[in-house]
Each structure stands twice: as structure tokens, then as C-alpha cells.
Amino acid sequence: MPRFLKKRSHKAGLPPGTIVPSESAGTRDDVKVFVMDYNEAQFQERETEKVEECFPYKDSDTVTWINVDGIHDVDVLQKLGTHFGMHPLSLEDVASTGQRPKLEDFESYLLIILNMIDYDSVKGEITSEQISIVVTNGSVISFQERRGDVFEGIRERIRTAKGRIRKMGSDYLAYALLDSIVDNYFVVLEKLGEKIEAMEDKVVSDPSPKVLQEIHHLKGETLFLRKSVWPLRELTSNLERTESSLIKESTSAYLRDLYGHTIQVMETIDTFREIIGGMRDTYLSSISNRMNEVMKVLTIIATIFIPITFVAGIYGMNFSSEASPWNMPELGWRYGYVGALAVMAAIAIGMLVYFRKKQWL
Amino acid sequence: MPRFLKKRSHKAGLPPGTIVPSESAGTRDDVKVFVMDYNEAQFQERETEKVEECFPYKDSDTVTWINVDGIHDVDVLQKLGTHFGMHPLSLEDVASTGQRPKLEDFESYLLIILNMIDYDSVKGEITSEQISIVVTNGSVISFQERRGDVFEGIRERIRTAKGRIRKMGSDYLAYALLDSIVDNYFVVLEKLGEKIEAMEDKVVSDPSPKVLQEIHHLKGETLFLRKSVWPLRELTSNLERTESSLIKESTSAYLRDLYGHTIQVMETIDTFREIIGGMRDTYLSSISNRMNEVMKVLTIIATIFIPITFVAGIYGMNFSSEASPWNMPELGWRYGYVGALAVMAAIAIGMLVYFRKKQWL
Amino acid sequence: MPRFLKKRSHKAGLPPGTIVPSESAGTRDDVKVFVMDYNEAQFQERETEKVEECFPYKDSDTVTWINVDGIHDVDVLQKLGTHFGMHPLSLEDVASTGQRPKLEDFESYLLIILNMIDYDSVKGEITSEQISIVVTNGSVISFQERRGDVFEGIRERIRTAKGRIRKMGSDYLAYALLDSIVDNYFVVLEKLGEKIEAMEDKVVSDPSPKVLQEIHHLKGETLFLRKSVWPLRELTSNLERTESSLIKESTSAYLRDLYGHTIQVMETIDTFREIIGGMRDTYLSSISNRMNEVMKVLTIIATIFIPITFVAGIYGMNFSSEASPWNMPELGWRYGYVGALAVMAAIAIGMLVYFRKKQWL
Amino acid sequence: MPRFLKKRSHKAGLPPGTIVPSESAGTRDDVKVFVMDYNEAQFQERETEKVEECFPYKDSDTVTWINVDGIHDVDVLQKLGTHFGMHPLSLEDVASTGQRPKLEDFESYLLIILNMIDYDSVKGEITSEQISIVVTNGSVISFQERRGDVFEGIRERIRTAKGRIRKMGSDYLAYALLDSIVDNYFVVLEKLGEKIEAMEDKVVSDPSPKVLQEIHHLKGETLFLRKSVWPLRELTSNLERTESSLIKESTSAYLRDLYGHTIQVMETIDTFREIIGGMRDTYLSSISNRMNEVMKVLTIIATIFIPITFVAGIYGMNFSSEASPWNMPELGWRYGYVGALAVMAAIAIGMLVYFRKKQWL
Amino acid sequence: MPRFLKKRSHKAGLPPGTIVPSESAGTRDDVKVFVMDYNEAQFQERETEKVEECFPYKDSDTVTWINVDGIHDVDVLQKLGTHFGMHPLSLEDVASTGQRPKLEDFESYLLIILNMIDYDSVKGEITSEQISIVVTNGSVISFQERRGDVFEGIRERIRTAKGRIRKMGSDYLAYALLDSIVDNYFVVLEKLGEKIEAMEDKVVSDPSPKVLQEIHHLKGETLFLRKSVWPLRELTSNLERTESSLIKESTSAYLRDLYGHTIQVMETIDTFREIIGGMRDTYLSSISNRMNEVMKVLTIIATIFIPITFVAGIYGMNFSSEASPWNMPELGWRYGYVGALAVMAAIAIGMLVYFRKKQWL
């Protein structure tokens, strides 16, 4: 579970507000900056060469969405931060991964940091990427660790003017981004749910140590998710109740809805935890049942043979019947051998009857 | 436990407020719309062909109850929503199942979403249906996933003007609907309670692995109920303390009563959980007791025979008494054989006495 | 534990406020109504034939205590309720058993519902009876499920004008009733405590399955008590902090004291739960210790004899010493037999020494 | 653990405010009343014959500390209570032991009830004594169950005018008493801590059932302490935040400090609980490890001998080689016996190699 | 785990406010006092011979940081305390180790007490040192138990005027100290995380009792950390929300950030606890699996040989075929011996087939 131990960008000893890009912050390809600028009437979209190209949009009446893929270019962050009036601590937070999801209100802008998760079906693991959203009056800047996100639907809605997104402001755009991210939690939860269901059968039908390891893996994934979502709940709750003037009245119903979804994600995760905990118990009692069954049948077999082997031992003794007629006269009887066999059979059957009566068989 | 993993209507990527009827939202028969319209003096009841037929009732002085069975016809929802001034997000919530119970106050109306549960005695499972109640000034609209509900008593009381329902407004009607639903939780809890009581005897008398599976099933049902009721408690608490002008002063005592009932449901479920947890412990220690008993008796039998089989083995040795008088002289003794048997009996009896003294028998 | 599953008076489908007497609500003998009327100077006590006889007391300056034994006569409840101006929901609550303890403030009166518990030393079970107390200005009406209560001391104090009860109002009387009930919880807790102490010795000295059942029984009793007391704590806390004009300033110190006692009951119950949980652990480890001891001693015995039985087996083989001098020459040795016995003894003693060294003996 | 079940002074049925001295409230020797009276300039100390002797001090300008050893003389309590204007419920609380620690504000005085604990190194048990402190303007009255306390240091400081106690008022004196009591909790915790440390080694080196009993004893002591300290935390927190005019501004920093110490006591107890819980786990897994080791070695020995005993059994059979050359020709071979022994040795060694390879040895 | 039981400086019986240096409070070398004095323009740094040398800095306009290494010289503490107007209780807190982390607001100064932790890689243990920070208007005094700290980076930033520290006031300096300490928690957590990861593999590959001990050790370290950090969370939360005029508006964003980091430390520790708890479970089920495997294979071997040894026993009996043709005729058959061996082989193979079918092999 090395993911829990993810290194924070090391900053001990550095002055606060120093931008230290995370070592794991994306590959070394260039940082990409995409701009979408729109209002109800018009729409424009471009990938900029230089980050300065997107500065003019700041003061337009339109809503501007600047999306930055890659947070390891200190220069880009610095320029953007300066132009949009961001606090040095905000830039430091954006640049360093492994942050706790949070909402901070800097009056002129809101900083939202959270994790965008996805399910890597090849590794069978949940992957997580830190995303920072800066909401100003008229602009939204989103910083992603690397390319690839869950916002394609939003881009399409902006392009095609579908839904009400083109009629709303930057706060609605920020909500739409958050909503996409939370919706994707449901997608991941469904995948996890399918794995859990599949595991539930295995636990009863084939309780091997490998199954226990898979249960532990599932538990780890759930723990990981929970750690991500727990502060997210706080974040959305704060966002709903924020008194920032950046969030308009008309958006609050949507934010309340978002909060409800986050609660639902949380509750589903807790249900998963309970189910996985139950599976572990089922596994252990399956294992223990099997072992008990093995021990019981085997011990019964052993116990039947021990007394009759003793009888055979008796008549294997070499007491001399010549020395005394008291010595092992059975050996000379006509039906001695048959009788001995009969006695053995009687003992064995008696044992079996006794075990059956005690319901051990 | 696939019910926990119930698919939400998939909406990732769609704009918020889009009505996406749940795939599992009822069979494909027509959506039915029933209208009851009443005040203290008069009463009218009809099933409408077209949803538009119930629009005129909106502005009458009477209380109007519109009940919609089936939420998969987007057209019906859209028309009703538009006519009664509902927010797009509300319609989306009504249409998509798997919602978390909630109360939302949209000033001109209250939206209440909760689960109506029932006990399917054939499958031995608790079934759940999402029901959405919209309370406006003078009207109540209830949306059910499918036909069949727990409101027949209310309809009868409206028809026969029994109780005070005909004298009260739409808020009392909404309360009556909620009260019926919560009352049905008690009915389901009683059924569950009977199953738990029956199981309690089985656990002691016949602790088979099947019993453990049934305990797990009961635990799952309780978990499922708890997940439904937990937000219901919040809902009724909010309803009791709401400052909405739609809820009149005279109804608040009833709502406080409703809240009390929800708490009682919650506490009964928690008691069930404790009892079921205790049964699991009892089961495990019954199993372990039985196994211990088996092992103990069998081991004792084995242990008695091992030493005496050894004695028999001694006298089965072939040392030649001809070679030396030191070799196995017992074999030639007059009472050698009888003596050997006596020694064996003495060992066996000594063992039994020892075990008895140690209270292992 | 059927008591947990106590049936609520079935009301699903009936209009709220309908009085449905509980089926188990006392035997069918007549409902008894006792009246005590007093102030500092005078005192009167009577058993009424008809409930109407106690109506005149309502408007007197004296404090009136009307005690109703039996809540299954709807007529009596209805008349009292109407005369004292009770809300229909209050009457429904009084009549139906299985209610959650609660305090409701209806401005003109307070309704207090709680459980009066007692210890049935014959069945060894805690019994519970619902008691409803209505406090108005100048009157207290108490409804009991059946005859027999813990109020005899209060009646005696009223009759003999002992203490300050005759000088105080109806709120103090209500406090006195509650105080008697909570005091009786201590009596029951002491009985339960004695049983727990007795059990603690048994668990160590004689850990039989019957003991485990008794532990489970005690656990059930504690769970039952806890379920009763938990809402009682809330009730007394609310009563202490109530702003109702029915509770005078002078009574508040007493109510604070009452609240303290309820907390103490709660904490004692929680301590009992911890002790009982510990006893279960002690039981399980006693059982496991005994089993381990059995297995250990028996296995050691078996293990000593297995190698020496093997030696005996060796010399029971029939290799022909005639065919070859290499075949079992020991059989012809002068001290062969004695030597073989000596070898066996050496092995056995060696084993014992080894076990002793390993501290397995 | 009979201490948990300590009898409250039985009062069920008696009017509230009746002083019922606890049966266990000290021996029957006379109740002692000591008075210390001081201000910055002067100091006086005496043991009174009659309780009335300390009444004059009440109205002096000096601070008066009246310490009452023994609470079983109703007369003394009554007189003191009347003279200092105490509420009857306060006197009842002072007289009856087994009270829950609490702070009550009666405007003209504060009543503080708490437990003074000590460690009885003979019995190895924590002892507890109820102490009630009444703080009025200018006086402190402390009631102890019996002689012997932790206040000697305070008396010395008053006598020698060391520290600031002689310069401060009655509230500081009350604080000093509470501080002494809480400080003694640390002393007891250190003794308990030493026992826990000693036990930690024993659990690994010598896990006998006696050790388990000692662990249970320690757990009981910790539970007992926790039950005492939990309400103490509440008490000191309330005292710190009290708005009573009896507590001066200058004392509040001291009370905050006191509260901090109580929290620290609480946290240390919780840490002890965790450590003791961990020791129990260590004990159980030590026991289980030992048992497993026993079983493993013994079973291995048995398993090696079982196959080779079988081989010996084969050659102990009496098939007649005269009847047929096919019958047991090995018996007549030159190296038959040696060969048989070699086969047995080979089997035994093979087994050992297999076990070693499987890491069972 | 003796660190949990760390002795508080013993003060029972002493007047509050007495400075009692902890016995373990550093070695007996001289207490060192370092002063740094700076503003944006100038900077001065010196180690003082006498504590009085740093008094003049108090009233300068510059920010003064007085760092005291060693808290066992009562004289130094007294002088500093008097000069900077500290309350006697504050000095007592600074001098006595084993304090609970806390923030106290004395209007003219803030007292912050917390633990600076470090990882001693030689002992493999987390070490802890109490550090007290006094923040006045224009000065920060830090008291450490001994030399060596995590503040070197801050000193360097002050010297080189790097970052904004030289431009800010004493509140920012205090923040910087706290930030360094909290940052070092992350460093220690990473070391702990590495040990946990290493342990996770060991638990599966080599579950020896030593591993269990190491798990317990890790659990103890985590418990220790948690006990340190829990009150730290409260401290930083209070600091963030403090209304003290000593904390300027401009520093509050930094304090919010600090609080966020503390929460993150807390959550990482809780995750570690869950992982360690899971490792313990994995260890126990690994052990149990191994034992089950041993028992199973060995029991199977035993069980196969028991019946065939019985067969060998049968033909070792000495019934006389001369006395009767019914006696053991098999002994004289041509293929008697071969047949007997065949029967034994058949039994053994049958057993193996049965076990394989039951999936016990």
C-alpha cells in the first residue's frame, strides 16, 4: 500500500510559500495550457504556446477557463499566479502534490484542491491525481498533474451550448468541474462494487489464502478512497455554506446537490467497508470450518482403528500355551480367529453408531 | 448483497438537471396518474388519461393529491414539473432512483425523497422503492417507482372523511403519507424480528454453516434498513424544524411525533444489530464447543489404548527364551497372559480415574 | 429476548390520533382511578367509581394527583383527555405501549412518558411498564399499564405531610414520581450487580456452556436497561432545561439532581456492559485454557508411547535367524529382552526430560 | 470488582433532601472538625470540640477552612448546613457516598463533590474516598469520609505562609485542595504505570493463567479510575468557565491549569487502557504460540514413527513361508533384517528432510 | 513502552507556580542562550554569557528571538520570566517536562508548549523533546530541553534575508518555528512509513514471533505519535482562531495552512494505525494458516497408516491354524502375503483418492 505513504514534496527547512514542484508531478514533457472563453453568445477555444497568451482573457466579460496540464513548470505557475493575484501559499499548494482536499477563501478568489480518481483496469488499482481549481470573478483556472481528465463532457457542453453552462458564470463552471469529478467517484465505486460482488462468491466456494490477500487489497482500496473522500465532504459542505461573493445565489441549489452526492459516495464507501469486513469474517470461518471438518473425519477414522488394533496386538502376544492352559487359550479355539474378527467388527460398528448418535458424523 | 451496489442512473458527463430515468424504473406499462381533490365539504377522485387533466386542480382552493405511478416517462415529469414550477434538479432527482433520502426547500415547494420499504415474503427479502413527494401550497404530488403502495388507508380516510384529514391542508396530507411509510417500517421490523427470534433457537440447537449464512443474510438486511433509515432521521428532524411557510403550526405536533417514530425505528434496528452480532458470537462458540467435545472424547479414547497397545506389543516380541532365561520369562509363567491382561485393564482404569479427577470426562 | 421485539399497538393505516389500546395493556379488570388532593393545610384521598368524579378537583387551588391504573379503557382516557384539554396525539401516546420515553411540551401541559422497571425475582428478569405523566397547572395525572408501582412512599409522605411535598406544587409532585422511578432503577441495578458478581466467580471456577448462556442473558438484560435509560437521560436533561412555565424555579435544583441520578444509572449500566464483555472474554479463555491443557497432557502421553511401541514392533518381526546370523541376532542375546526394555525406558525418560526442559509439563 | 457495585445510600421511598449517612461512611469514632483561619497577616488553627465553635469564623474577614473528617454524624452536618445556608439536597449529597463527581452552583456557595483516590500498596488496589468541598465567600468547608488525606502540604504552606496561598481568598484555597487531589492521581497513575511495565515483561516471558488474571485486575483498576476521572474532567471544565462571582479573575489561570492536568490524567488512563488491551492480545498470542509449538513438535515425532512402525508391523505378520515361497521371502534373506532397519531409517530421515524443507522444523 | 509513563516533574504538595526543573531535563552542561535580532534592514546574532545581556533587545523595534537550550537552570528562567512579565504558572509549565501541548493566552503574551519529535535511527525509536514558545509583541522566546533542533533553516533564512521572514513580525517567526516542527513530523512519518512497508512483506514471507514484536513496537510508536499530535491539532486550531492582538491579520493565512498540515499528520497517523492493525490480522492468519497446513498434512499421513497398520496387526496374531482350519487360513495361502500387501496398498490409495476428492490435499 505504498500509495498511503506518498511523499509530500519535501519542504522542511524551506520558507513557506516556496514553490517546490512534486518529483512525481507528471512526465517532463511540456506543460500544456488550454483556454476556453465563452458567454451565451460567443465561444472561443485555443491551446496557447506561451502562458502569457491567456492573460488578456482575464478582464473580458466572458467566462474564461484556463486548464493547465502539468504543475512542474515553476515559471508558468509563477506567471499565472502573479497575473491572477494569487497568494504565494496558494501557488505552493498547487505545486505540491499529496495535499489534503481543501477549500480556501482568499476573498478575490477561491482555491479548491481535491483528488480526481480513476480506475486503472490494467493494474486493478484506483489511481489518483491532484487537481487544483482557482475560481475568480469571471475565470476558472484548473491545474492537473498530467493530461487526461473527466472534463470532456463539460468541454462538449460548452462547445455545443448544451444545457445551461453557457448562460452561467465562473462559479457554475467550477461546480460543473467538481460535479464531473464526484460523478467519476460513482463510476469507480461501481467498478469496485463489481469486484466485491465477485469476491463474495469466491470467499465461500474457494477460501484460499490468495482470496484473503485480495480481500486485503480491496480493503486497502476502500481505505484509500475513504481518505480521499472524507475531506471532500467537508470541502463541499463548506462550499455550499460559503459566504463568498464569488458564488452566486443561483448556483447554490447545484452545490447542495453536489454535497448530497458526496455524502452518498461516503455512505457507499462505508457500506463497502462493512461488507469487506464481513467477507473477512466469512473467509476466516470458512477456513476454520474446513479445518474442523478435516480434523473431525480424520480423528474419527483414527479412533475407530486404535481399539481394534489393540485387539490384534493382544493376539500377537507370544504367551506360551504349552507352559500353562491359562495362557491365551483363545488361540487354540475353533472359532478363535473368526471370533476375534467379529469382536473387532463389533467395536468398529459400535464406535460408528456412537459417533452417529452424537451427531459427529 | 447486490442491492447495496444498485446502479445510480448513469449521468457522468451529462449536464446537471438532465432527466435520465433509471433503467430499473418500473415496467414499461403506461405511467398512471391518479388525482384526489378534496376539502372538508367535497371530494373528487379520478384517474387521468393525460397528465394535463390534473393541471386545473392546481389553482383550486381544495387540497389536491396527484399520485404518479412510474417515473420513466420523461414527458409526464417535464409537463408536471413545468406546470408546478419545479427546479430542473428536482425533476432529475425524482427521475433517478438510488437517491439518498433528503428534504429540500425550494421556497415555493418542498421536495421530499425517501424509500418506501416492504417485505417480500416469497424471496424473504426487504424490497425498497423510491418515493418523491412534492408539497406545494394546496397540492401534494407523489412519484412512485411502480404501482402498489402503503397509502390505501389514507385514500379510504379521505373518501370517508374519517379522522381530521379532510379538514387539514396539503402539509397534513404530506405528513400522512410519510407517517404511513414510517409505520410500514415497523411492520417490516416486526417480520424481521420474528425471523431473528426463530434464528436464535436454531443457533444453539443446530449450529450448521447454513445457519451462519442466514445470520449473514439477516445482518445484510439490517445493514440495508439502517442505510435507508439513517438519512430518514435527518429528513424528519429537518422537517420538524423547518421554517418553511408551507408547514403550518398545527401540523408541527404531528411532525414531532413522526420524528419520534423514526428515532424508534432507528433504535430498534440498532438493537437488532447488537442481537445479530451476539448470535454470530454464539454460533462461533457453539461450533467451537462441539469441535472441542469431539476432539476431547476422541483423544481420550486414543490415549487409553496407546499405553495398553504398547504392553501388547511388548509380549509380541520374539526374544528367544531358549537362548537365555532372562529373555521374556513372563511368557512361560502360569498366569502370564491373565496378568498381562490385568495390567492392561489396570492402566486403562487408572487413566479413566485420572481423567475423571481432572474433570476431563 | 422477545422483549426487544415487543409489538407496538398496530396502527398502520389508522388516522394519527386514534386511540388504540395495546393488546397487552393489563388484564381485563376494571380500570381504577385514585385521586389524592392536598395542600399544606388539608388532604383528601379517594378511589373514584366514575372518572367524572375527579373532574371537580381540576379547578381547585389544591394539588390534585389522579392515578389511572390500566390504560385499555378508551372511554376513560377520552373523558380525562377532553376535560384536561389534551391533544389527540397525547392520548394516542398514553394508550399505546412500547413508546420511546419522551417529554413533550403542549404549553398548557407537559406529557412525560417513560418506563418503570422492576425486577421479577421469580423469572430472574427485569420487567418494564410504561407510565405516562401529564403535568398541568395544579394537577398531575399518571397513567400506569397495571396496578402496582413504586409510589407508595410518596403517598405516605403526602398522607403524613412528611418532607416538603405538601408545601410544593404539581411540578414537585411530578418530580417526586420521576425520582421514585429513577431510584428504583438503582434497586434493579443492585440486583443485577449481585448476579454479575456471582457470575464472575463461576466463570473462572466452572466454565460450562450454561455459564455462557447466563452471560448472554445478563448481556440481554443490560441491553434492555440501556435501551430504556438512554432516552430517559435526554428526557430529564430536557426537563431540567425546559422553559415551560409549569416548572417553577424552586423545583429546578431537584430536577438537576434527578438528571445527575439518571447519568449515574447510565454510567453504571455502561460499566456493567464492560464487565460482562470482560466476563465473556474470561469465559472463552478459560474454555480454551482447559482444552489446551487436555490436549497437551494427552498428546504428551501419546508421544512417549509411540517411539517405544515402535521398538516393541521391531522385535516382533519374524526375520529368521536361521536363514542368516545377520537377522535379528538380539533375539538370541542373553540380555536382549532386558536391554530392549532398558532402551524403551531410556527413550521414555528422555522424552519426559525434554518436555520438562521445554516447560511443556 | 465489587467496588463498581458500591451501594448508594439507600433512599428509594424517602423524601429528597433527607440526610441518610452511608453505611460504609467511616468507622464509628467521633467526627472531627478542624479549623484553619488565616489572612496574609495572621493565622490560627484548632480542632473543635463542638461544631458550633467554628461558627464565629464565618463572618470574619479572614479565610476559614473547616475540614470535617467523617460524614456519618447527621447532627454535625445539619448544624453546619443551617449555619452556612446550604440547600437540603446539598447536605444529602454530602452525606451519601457513591455520588458522581459534580459541581453545583447555589449562588451563595459552590458545591464540589469528587473522589480522592489513593493506592493501597498492601492490597495492591486503588482506594477511593468521596470528598465534598463547599466554597462560600470567605470560607471553604471540606467533608471527608474518614481521616487521612493529601492536604498536608497545603496545611504546611498555610502555616509557613509559603507561596501565595495566604494572600489569596477562599476560591484559591478550594483550587489548592482540588490541585492536591488531581496531583495525587498522577502519583497513583505512576504506581499503576510501574505495575503495567512489570507486567509487560511477564506476559512474554511467562504467560501463565495467573498473568491473565493480573491483566484483568489491572484493566479493572483502569476502568475504575476512568469512571472517577471522566466526570472530573467535566467538573473542572465547568469550574474554569463558571460565571459564579465566588471565583475571582485571578484564580482563573490556575483553574485552567487544573483543567489541563485533568485532561492529562484522562489521556494517560486512555493510553494505559490501550496498552493493557495490547498486553491481553500479546498474552493470547503467546499462549497460542506455545500451544502451537507443543502440538507441532509432538505431531512431527508421532508422524515419523507411524510409517516405520507400520514397516515393523509388516514383518511381524505370520504368513507361512512353508506354504508358499511367495509368502514373506524377505524373512529368509541374508540381509532382510538389516535391510528392513535401513528402510525404516530412510523413511525417518526422508520425513525429517521434508519437514525441514517445508520449514516446519 | 516506558516513554508513555514518563515521570512528570513531581510537584504534589508543592505550591502551584513553583519551578521544579524536570530531572531528565538535559545534561548538566551550562544553559545556552542565543539571541537573534532583526528587521528588514538590519540583523544581529549572538550567544550571550549572561541572560541579562538579552534584556535590552526587548524594547527595540526589531524582532528578537531568544532561544534557550536547557530548562534546568531555575535562575535563568526566573530572570527571563520577570523581565518579560510571565505568569509564575507559565514558568512552571516551561520548566516541567511531560506537559500536554497547549496554547495559553496571557494577553501580553502567548505561551505555546508542544513536542518536537525526531527519529533516532540508531535505537529505531522516535524521540521527543518539549519546546515552549513565548510570543510577545516584538519578541519570541523559545525554550528547548537540550541542544539540537529543526530550526537551522529558519536561522539561515533570517541571516540571508531569504523569503519574507525579515519583513514580518514576531507572530510570523513563531509561525515559522511551529511550521518547522510540524514539517519534521512529516519527515518522521516518512521514516515510519518506510518501516511499515518493509514490515508488510515480512509478515507474509516470514511470520515469526519476532515480527509480531516488531508490529507491536510500530504500534507503540504510532500510539506515541498520536498522543503528541492529538492536542497539537487543538493547539493549531485555537491559534488560527485566536483573537489575540499578538497575531496579525497577515499571518492568519499561514496559520490556516499550518492547521491543515497538522490535520494531514493526524490522518496519516490514523491510516498507519489502520495498516498496522491490518498487519496484525495478517500475521495471525499467516501463523494460523501455517499451523493448519502442518496439522493437515501430518494428520493425513497418520490416517493413511493407521488402517494399514491394523491389517498388519491382524496377520501378526498367533491363532493356531493347527487347532482349527478356521484359524487364519490366509497365512497358508499361496498369495496370502502378496494379497495382504495389495489390500494395504488399496486402502492407502483409496484414502488418498478420498482426500483428494474432498480437496484436503
Tally of separate domains of chain A: 2
Biggest sheet descriptor of chain A: 7 strands, mixed
Helix content of chain A: 40-55%
Q: Which stretches of chain A are low in confidence, meaning pLDDT under 50 for 5 or more residues running?
A: none
**What is the CATH topology assignment of the largest domain in chain A?**
Beta Polymerase, domain 2
Structure, described:
5 copies of one chain form a homopentamer. Chain A is α+β, with helices and mostly antiparallel strands. Chain A folds into 2 domains: 9-286, CorA soluble domain-like (Beta Polymerase, domain 2, 2-Layer Sandwich); 294-357, Up-down Bundle (Methane Monooxygenase Hydroxylase, Chain G, domain 1). Helix content of chain A is 50%, strand content 14%. Chain A has 7 helices and 7 strands; from the N terminus they run E-E-E-H-H-E-E-E-E-H-H-H-H-H. In chain A, strands 2-1-3-7-6-5-4 form a 7-stranded mixed sheet, sandwiched between helices. In chain A, helix 4 (170-205) runs antiparallel to helix 5, helix 4 runs parallel beside helix 6 (252-314) and helix 5 packs antiparallel against helix 6 (252-314). Chain A is rod-shaped, with a radius of gyration of 36 Å. Chains in contact: A-B, A-E, B-C, C-D, D-E.
